[in-house]
Specification:
Blueprint: H1 2-11, E1 18-22, H2 29-44, E2 51-55, H3 62-69, E3 77-81, H4 84-91, E4 103-118, H5 127-136, E5 141-145, H6 151-162, E6 169-173, H7 177-185, E7 191-195, H8 196-204, E8 209-213, E9 242-250, H9 255-268, H10 272-280, E10 284-285, H11 293-312
Parallel strand pairs: 1-2, 1-3, 5-6, 5-7
Antiparallel strand pairs: 3-9, 4-7, 4-8, 4-9, 4-10
Helix pairs in contact: 2-9, 2-10, 4-11
The chain binds D-malate.
D-malate binds next to helix 2, helix 6, helix 7 and strand 7.
Pfam family, one: TctC
Family: Belongs to the UPF0065 (bug) family.
Keywords: Signal
Length: about 325
């Protein structure tokens, strides 16, 4: 088998497409990053390789991640995933895969802020009114997310815990935040915390109400979101959540194939079109050493360790 894969390394990727498995429904922020990155990597590999995006949603991204963990290690099945790589180990007692052992790390892609948003009819006009409104309607409101292990779930968990509203709001899971956003815009759910990749357009179009950003610093460089308070400014001490995306292959993928994919990723991250698309959605393309596999893996390891106590405390940041 080793010789077979070694041969592949010379001819990789050949005519077989490279599949980006996206562990959430089409149209959401993870899907968006994957499709834009696939286009940039197709170009950075000289246009010879063709990429397909396969949405495998469910269980907060763990079903899609597991599919790649168990896929043939030939470089043709890759996982584009986010902070869920680091939160799932603390949320699932029986996770089907080990994030640090079952994958080859191919590099980080971007960092993305999150926004706290509401349905258009929500009566609270700004963040200050929002907490009061939630307390006045305890038990009657709900918040959407993309399943245990999703970024929207993690943000909701932390936010509800920070305002002591864990009991006050019902959480509603979806296969991704694209379907969740449709429900929110349609007024079927009341709130959601989602990445700017998915919310910028809806906020700009006035289809949802924006209350705050989850990053420690305000998004001063973003003309649409610069006046939104951070949750720290809104009084939630230490609240600081930024989502990130990385690229992964199954453990055992030949090093020469990994090196080719990592080289193509690094070139794609310097592609002005890709950078412009990401910036337009409030995301920041990674330019530091986390584009290298070792630093990518070290970062995810640190995030697993950082999120573990927060999740075990029910979403509470340590004081
Ligand atoms: C998440 O909440 O994890 C993602 O936004 C889900 C998605 O990309 O659809």
């Amino acid at each position: 088998a080793a010789t077979l894969f070694a041969a592949n390394a010379q001819t990789f990727p050949g005519s077989k497409p490279i599949t980006f498995v996206v562990p959430f429904a089409a149209g959401g922020p993870t899907d968006r990053v994957a499709r834009d990155l696939a286009e940039a990597m197709r170009k950075s590999m000289g246009g010879g390789a063709n990429f397909v995006v396969e949405n495998v949603n469910g269980a907060g991204g763990t079903i899609g991640a597991n599919k790649v963990a168990k896929a043939a290690p030939d470089g043709h099945t890759l996982l584009l995933h986010h902070i869920g790589m680091a939160s799932a180990p603390s949320l699932y007692r029986k996770l089907q895969y080990k994030p640090l052992e079952d994958f080859e790390y191919l590099g980080m892609v971007n960092e993305v802020p999150m926004t706290l948003i509401g349905k258009p009819q929500l009566e609270a006009k700004n963040y200050r009114e929002l907490e009061t409104y939630i307390r006045a309607n305890a038990g009657k409101l709900n918040i959407a997310h993309a399943g245990l292990g999703s970024a929207s779930h993690l943000c909701g968990l932390m936010w509800q815990s920070a305002i002591n509203a864990t009991e006050a709001m019902t959480t509603i899971p979806f296969g991704g935040t694209a379907p969740a956003m449709n429900a929110l815009v349609g007024g079927q759910v009341d709130m959601m915390c989602d990445q700017t990749t998915n919310t910028t357009g809806q906020i700009e179009a006035g289809r949802v109400k924006a209350y705050a950003v989850t990053t420690a610093k305000p998004l001063t460089g973003n003309k649409l979101l610069k006046d939104l308070p951070t949750l720290q400014q809104a009084g939630l001490k230490g609240f600081d959540l930024t989502i990130w995306h990385g690229l992964y292959a199954p453990k055992g993928t030949p090093p020469a194939v990994l090196a080719q994919i990592n080289a193509a990723l690094k070139k794609a991250l310097k592609d002005p079109d890709f950078i412009k698309k990401q910036e337009g959605l409030g995301a920041v393309v990674v330019t530091d050493n986390r584009v290298e596999p070792a630093a990518h893996k070290a970062f995810v390891t640190a995030e697993i360790n950082k999120l573990k106590p927060v999740i075990e405390a029910g979403g509470k940041f340590a004081d």
